[in-house]
Sequence to fold (251 residues):
Amino acid sequence: MPLVVLPAQVADIEPVYDVYFAAFQDEPIIDFLYPGGVDRKAHTEGVKQWWAHDKAVYTIKCLDTDTGQIVGMATWDIFWRQGNDNGWEKPSGIPWLEGKEKERCEAVLRPMWDLREQLFGKQRPYIYLSSIGVHPDSQRRGIGRLLMQWGVNVAEQLRVPLYTESSIPGLRLYASMGFERLTHVRLVHKEEITGRPDVDVPLMMKMPSAARGLSFKEWADGGYPQSYQSFASTELVGEGNKDKLISMSSL
Fold:
């Protein structure tokens, strides 16, 4: 029987996060978020409250129907409304940490929050991939692609961009699914904060097919028009030393 992607339910919290913690066990972010280790009981209760109150978050699971085991997971933030009601609230901090551990973790995460606000704010609809993980015992089965495709499909239906931060190993998957790496903005995790060598984090964006090949920067430079079609229907035409925009719809 096949692998299948389904919405995660409350009863799935523990096995979903079994996958998460197994997939990220060697990643620095776990040390920042849970420097003293993870109290899984408290974590499960926290996730229950999070799912109950956050209207933008959608956690999905990849189920192996041969074994009944959850082998992959992803968490998506879907901001589909235009304007101040789209659901984005920049986090105020990490509530379960204190003191120096809290300061260090927030120093890592705050530039990521600030950049999302810079790129999208509360005004523009978009989808954000918060986390994606595959259990180490189930690698190389196409699970990451299945989980990613779920979000791509929703972004296509909503006609909105899809954004995430990538690891270096994840770049190949994102590139194969049509993501572009942003170059007009940067996110660098500094050694003086992380205690590790500087990391230039790949920032990945996928525009919907409705944008007709328009890059995110082109769209942003054009004022983020809601109608990609009207923006993408113009082309830059050289006339001697003078450039002018001609609307294809007027021809």
Summary: Residues 232-251 have pLDDT under 50 and may be disordered.
